[in-house]
Amino acid sequence: MTKPHAEPPSKTVIITGGAGGGIGGGVSAVMAEAGWNIVIVDIDLEAGRGLSEQLARQGLSAAFFGADITLPGCAEQAVSFANSQFGGVDALVNNAGIGLVKDIAEVSDEDYRRVFSVNIDAAYRFSRAVVRAMPASGGAIVNISSVHALATCPGYTVYAATKGAIDAFTRALAVDCGPRRIRVNCIHPGLVPSPQNRDLIGRFADDVDAWLNTYTLKKQLLANLPEARQVGELVRFFLGGAASAITGQSIAIDGGTSVMLYERGS
Ligand SMILES: NC(=O)c1ccc[n+]([C@@H]2O[C@H](COP(=O)([O-])OP(=O)(O)OC[C@H]3O[C@@H](n4cnc5c(N)ncnc54)[C@H](O)[C@@H]3O)[C@@H](O)[C@H]2O)c1
Questions:
Q1: N or C, which end of the chain has less CB nearby within 10 Å?
Q2: What is the pLDDT of residues 108-133, one digit of tens each?
Q3: Per-domain residue ranges for the chain?
Q4: Ligand 1 in contact with 143 (CB < 6 A)?
Q5: Per-residue pLDDT reduced to its tens digit, 125-184
Q6: Are the CB atoms for 247 and 172 separated by under 8 Å?
Q7: Atom 41, ligand 1: which residue's CA is nearest?
Q8: Residue of the CA atom closest to atom 21 of ligand 1
């Protein structure tokens, strides 16, 4: 851990799942490059150490807290860690999330609980811990939901339910926290070609790149898939001063997927 970007005001953000090769890593890189102190909280110790060391080598301010965010007490420990490393916490990105593609008839109680515990329970606990710790001057939270909160496909019942819950949670938390000067906003990414997603697609498609190409042509208005760093730039906007009058809002970054009634070409 190094702290070369200590120009005032040096602010600190906790990013759950911030070591991921997809959106989490994109958010971590963008926020660190923007001069924030970042605290990456991730269960993947190798990726977390690797990314925080890589950012430190670039002269950026990053620390890694290796933990399973579903464990009770983890959020409070992460906040204490942020306090010990950087003297406080000003922002939170609830990014960590896991998927599930299974017909409802096949979903076990364990499947259901696992997805809810990462995607919702942890977001709730981290938000509560950070709200308790934020300075009187306020702070900001960004929740990473999904286009599956808006419309979905077969097999996504549980995942879509968690993402819809994140959307409603965002609005409710914004209402609760506005008087504390804490803003809460939400992002609905479309299909970002993260390693997690490529693995998922590889389970039903032989050629992942060809599948992604067809998806882009049929399911998006724009010819480019959203990139992890572009989600990171939206996070940066929501956490920064330019968004100081915005709270309780959700925005999709999906190449137009969520506004289409029909596939392109049909
Ligand atoms: N990738 C997409 O196309 C896409 C689209 C819409 C929404 N999302 C949402 O964006 C978020 C990031 O998804 P991504 O696919 O880009 O993944 P990502 O690259 O951000 O990786 C997720 C990270 O979360 C970590 N993690 C998972 N369970 C954890 C746990 N119990 N404790 C601590 N860390 C844990 C993983 O180790 C991984 O590093 C998720 O909430 C996902 O639902 C992703």
A1: C
A2: 999 999 999 999 999 999 999 999 99
A3: 12-188+228-249, 191-225
A4: no
A5: 999 999 999 999 999 999 999 999 999 999 999 999 999 999 999 999 999 999 999 999
A6: no
A7: 97
A8: 20
For residue 14, the CA-to-ligand 1 centroid distance in Å is 15
Answer whether 192 contacts ligand 1 (Cβ < 6 A). yes
Answer positive or negative: Cα dihedral of 1, 20, 37, 230. Answer: positive
Q: Is 262 a catalytic residue?
A: no
Domain 12-188+228-249 CATH (choose: 3.40.640.10, 3.40.50.720, 2.60.200.30, 3.100.10.20): 3.40.50.720
Report residue 125 as tokens.
């606990």
> Which amino acid, one-letter code, is at 244?
S
Amino acid letter for position 161: A
3-state secondary structure of 188: strand
Q: Which residue among 124, 156, 215, 262 is the active-site one?
A: 156
Ligand 1, atom nearest to 47 Cα: 39
Whether the pTM exceeds 0.85: the reply is yes
User: Ligand 1 pocket, 28 CB below 6 A?
Assistant: no
Tokens of 122: 């942890």
The CA 24 to ligand 1 mean position distance, Å, reads: 6
Q: What is the DSSP string of 189-251?
A: E-----HHHHHHHHTT-S-HHHHHHHHHHHH-SSSSPPPHHHHHHHHHHHHSGGGTT--S-EE
Residue with CA at minimum distance from ligand 1 atom 29:
43
